[in-house]
Design a protein that fits this description.
single chain, 5 helices, mainly alpha
Length: 142
């Protein structure tokens, strides 16, 4: 980010000050959280009335013609120790595993900051884009 963007903006007399904006943000965040919690409650009440598969999607049509699709999934977790105990008893081509390469962001930043020659060489294999900024507000009750 450029230095200018990080500087505090001095509002003119026509703009709300930062405390007003922070209060508005807190109010909207509270509304959003309450709405999400209520939506999840309603979903939990609906689920027993919907057609479902153990895994996958199933659609239920209501008497007023609405189509409600329920998708169910299972979360899978790998136990590395248990896998090592059984790995040799299963043919390698039958193991339900995928090897994926992921970026070690800490190492990439280290190279950028401490090993510029290596970073310049490897940087062409990576790209980045700004993530959504995150705001948290605490304290300062009005």
């Amino acid at each position: 980010m450029d230095a200018q963007r990080n500087e505090a903006v001095t509002p003119s007399h026509n703009e709300p000050n930062l405390d007003v904006l922070a209060e508005q943000w807190l109010q909207q965040k509270t509304l959003e959280d309450n709405c999400k919690a209520r939506r999840i409650e309603i979903e939990q009440q609906m689920i027993p009335h919907l057609a479902a598969r153990a895994e996958g999607s199933q659609t239920t049509e209501t008497t007023f013609g609405r189509k409600i699709k329920l998708t169910t999934k299972n979360n899978y977790k790998l136990d590395d120790i248990a896998l090592q105990a059984v790995r040799d008893s299963v043919p390698a081509n039958m193991l339900p595993l995928k090897l994926t390469q992921t970026i070690d962001v800490a190492r990439l930043k280290y190279l950028r900051n401490n090993e510029p020659a290596i970073y310049r060489e490897i940087a062409r294999a990576f790209s980045h884009s700004p993530a959504k900024p995150n705001i948290q507000i605490t304290g300062g009750e009005i």
